[in-house]
Specification:
Length: 142
């Protein structure tokens, strides 16, 4: 079972942060290869595992850097807004130890945060998250 473990100096305050990369989906990579078009490099991002997020979220700059095209629109609600339409993109999330998960990510600004990605329950539904607060550590396995 592929997994990774991270230790954060103050897990309770900072949250379960992970240095990760985001990349185009496998089907898009295959289309670009077949058309002999250039394939963008993965984009490094700081992610936060968020059990409160229904779906994974990426910052608009990630979608722009990867030249992603929306595959749909979803409406989201946040603590400060309701029924906000947002683009949705097919992406690959690349975690430490080359743990890779493909998902549909929602584009949202993530204002006031030092992260570029939220890893939501759409991804967590396929894995096991172990949060060991007393040693400031978490493990995500798939």
């Amino acid at each position: 079972m592929p997994s990774f473990t991270a230790q954060i100096p103050n897990l309770q305050v900072l949250g379960p942060l992970v240095d990760m990369s985001l990349w185009i989906s496998t089907p898009l990579e295959e289309v670009l290869k077949e058309a002999r078009q250039s394939i963008p490099d993965p984009v490094a991002a700081k992610g936060m595992i968020d059990t409160g997020a229904t779906g994974s979220v990426i910052h608009p700059s990630i979608a722009q850097q990867l030249a992603l095209k929306p595959v749909g629109v979803v409406r989201i609600s946040t603590p400060s807004s309701e029924d906000v339409p947002c683009y949705q993109y097919a992406v690959r999330l690349i975690f430490p130890n080359r743990v890779i998960v493909e998902t549909l990510a929602i584009e949202a600004p993530l204002r006031g945060q030092q992260i570029q990605c939220l890893v939501g329950r759409d991804v967590l539904a396929h894995g096991v998250l172990v949060y060991t607060g007393y040693i400031n550590q978490f493990t995500l396995s798939f």
